[in-house]
Every structure is written in C-alpha cells, then in structure tokens.
Specification:
Chain lengths: ~270, ~90
C-alpha cells in the first residue's frame, strides 16, 4: 500500500489542529481505512487526550526515532475504531530530539501498511513545524475567522509554498453563522480571498467539540453534530470526492434570510 | 465593500469589514517585507531614475502593491509630460 501523508498545521496555536487531526482520523478510520495519527508536538503532547488514548501510552515518537522500540510497539490501536492508530509525542523531551529526515523515514515506513498518515504539527514556524512538514504529501492549514489566525495562516502558507509542499488546502474552524450574519465575523469568502488557497473544510463552532474532547471521543463519530458532519466531509474530500459544503444557515428562518438580502443591497 | 444600506444611512462599517481591510494591508507587507515607508522611498527613487530619461509628472506618480492570487505585483503608474500629447505608461 502507498499511504498518503497529510500534515495538519496552522501557524497560530489553539485554532484546532489537534481536534481536526483526531476527527479527520476518526472519520477515515470509520470508513474502514487504516489511519495512523502522529503527534509531532514534542514536549506538549495533546493528541492522546483528545483521542482518549492517554492511558495506553508505553512508548512514544522519540523512542521510535532513538531505536528504543519498534514502530509497532509505540503505536496505540483505538479499540473502538480498530483501523485508527496513534503514535504519541514524547512529553519529557524537546523538538530537537527529532529531525525532518527522521520524520520522512518513519512516514515512509508507515506508508507501506497504512492508507493515511496524519501528522499533527505544533504551532509556530520552528523546528517542530519543519519536522511535521518534511514528510507531507498534502498539507491542511487550519485557521479560524480571527485576524491573528488568518495572518499566521498566510505566513505558514508562504512557508509551505517555499518548501514546495503546496498548494496547501484550508480548513476554516469555529465559524459562527450568527456573527457572520451581523457583519462581525469574516466570511468564508473573505478568508479565501485573503489567503488565496483552496478550501477543504468549513467547521461551524459547536459545543459538541469540547464535549467530545472532554470524553476523549471524536465527534466525527456523532451523527447529530454539525461539526462532526463537517469533519466527515473533510475526510471525503481528502479522498478526492468533490462534495458540497454544509449549509451553515440551515436553521435560519425566512426573516433572517430576508434581512440579510436587504443588507447586502439585494446583490 | 460596505453594503448598500450602510452607505445610504452613513452607518459605521461592521467589524468584519474592518478586519478584512486591515488584513489586506498587513498581508501585503508580510508577504513582501515592504513597509509603506520603504514603498515611498522606492517611489522617490523611481521618479528620480525615470526623470533622467523622460519628463514625467512626478506629482501624479502612483506606486502600489496589488494582489493577484498569491502573487504580489508592484504597479507603477507614471504619467509622462510629452508636450500636448500626454501618454500614460504602466
């Protein structure tokens, strides 16, 4: 099997990289595809708790790189989703313990047996980001509609292009349709126009995300959650299928639509 | 772009609109490493060089950055003084 390495990054911290990795991974695995998620944020391990696998860690990424264990020994298989695996980050080391070529070697190894390798990048533009970017076949940039997140996303997109890993694709997280409607949040079109890259996901702000992380159960498996559906759609698009985006205004009534129409000057 | 009704009623622009306008400027400078000050310096030097060869209307010269996808363009608009026949080159 020749698996695909997808790196999930953002520049700014706290925009939802880890949540996106956990949920896209769960959505792909739920379709019966073999997935390995790698937490590349060494020293700030987090993907394990979001995925609910924190109690099963024995070895980690640095143990593999330094030859203290085999890849299989560090890989945790999710009992609820047998096709989903996690390689956790080391908690007591720093980013210098891993090099970009270590990551390329590890991912080339994993590619043989797994369809998808998702690399959760640390925030920033330093070594950790370089490590996460090096093995990528495809890069997803996560942002949200805040000016700081959009600005950092632009910087990261430039670096991805410079490394010839582009074109990256954009996931816009935490969209609040009510705020967009009243003109107090950048619209999807605004962000796409500013960053000038292709979209792959629109994730509405959804309380279920935090509830899922609290429980350690990715909400992509929750049929009712809108954000969960949005993450399942990202996984479908990753597989090359072009499907329409969720209608974030679906619960809107006729008055909301009418007032928006009038405010746009009937355009 | 402010909406039609906002302009009609002379309302304050919405915060999202301000965000977009501010980001547009910030991203141009982030991508090119050109501040508005260095753009002005570039403009002055450009005027100086071009005037050595041809007479120009230096007050009407415009030098600005334009975004075309992820490519930034430096656009210089330099009106020439050619007697009665005024020409513009881009």
């Amino acid at each position: 099997m020749a698996g695909t390495v997808v790196t999930i990054t953002s520049g700014k911290g706290g925009v939802g990289k880890t949540t996106a990795t956990a949920n896209i991974g769960a959505a792909l695995a739920a379709e019966g595809q073999s997935v390995v998620c790698i937490d590349a944020d060494i020293g700030l391990r987090n993907l394990d708790v979001v995925m609910g696998l924190e109690n099963r860690i024995v070895y980690d990424l640095v143990d593999i790189i330094e030859g203290r264990c085999r890849v299989r020994q560090a890989m945790i298989r999710d009992k609820r989703l047998p096709m989903l695996h996690l390689i956790p980050a080391a908690q007591t080391r720093d980013k210098s313990a891993v090099s970009p070529s270590d990551m390329v070697r590890l991912c080339d190894d994993l590619r043989q047996e797994h369809r998808w390798i998702l690399v959760d990048s640390p925030a920033g533009i330093e070594r950790g980001f370089r490590n996460a970017l090096a093995p990528a076949d495809t890069v997803l940039v996560v942002t949200n509609p805040e000016v700081s997140a959009v600005r950092d996303a632009d910087r990261i997109i430039g670096l991805i292009e410079a490394e010839e890993k582009g074109p990256a694709r954009l996931v816009i997280n935490r969209i609040r349709p009510d705020m967009v409607k009243r003109g107090d949040m950048l619209t999807v079109d605004d962000i796409v126009e500013l960053l000038a890259i292709d979209l792959i996901g629109l994730i509405p702000d959804d309380e279920e995300i935090m509830m899922g992380a609290n429980r350690g159960t990715p909400i992509a498996l929750n049929g009712k959650s809108k954000a969960g559906q949005a993450f399942r759609n990202v996984s479908t698009r990753l597989q090359g299928e072009d499907i329409p985006y969720l209608d974030l205004y679906a619960n809107d009534n006729i008055f909301g639509r009418l007032s928006r129409f009038i405010r746009s000057g009937g355009e | 772009m402010s909406s039609f009704l906002d302009r009609l009623l002379n309302r304050e622009p919405k915060s999202a609109q301000l965000a977009k306008e501010r980001l547009k400027l910030v991203l141009v400078h982030d991508r090119t490493d050109l501040t508005s000050q260095s753009l002005n310096e570039l403009k002055d030097e450009l005027i100086q060089v071009v005037s050595q060869h041809v007479e120009i209307d230096s007050k009407a010269v415009r030098v600005e950055m334009q975004q075309d996808g992820r490519i930034q363009r430096l656009i210089a608009d330099i009106p020439l003084r050619t007697g009665n026949r005024r020409k513009r080159i881009r």
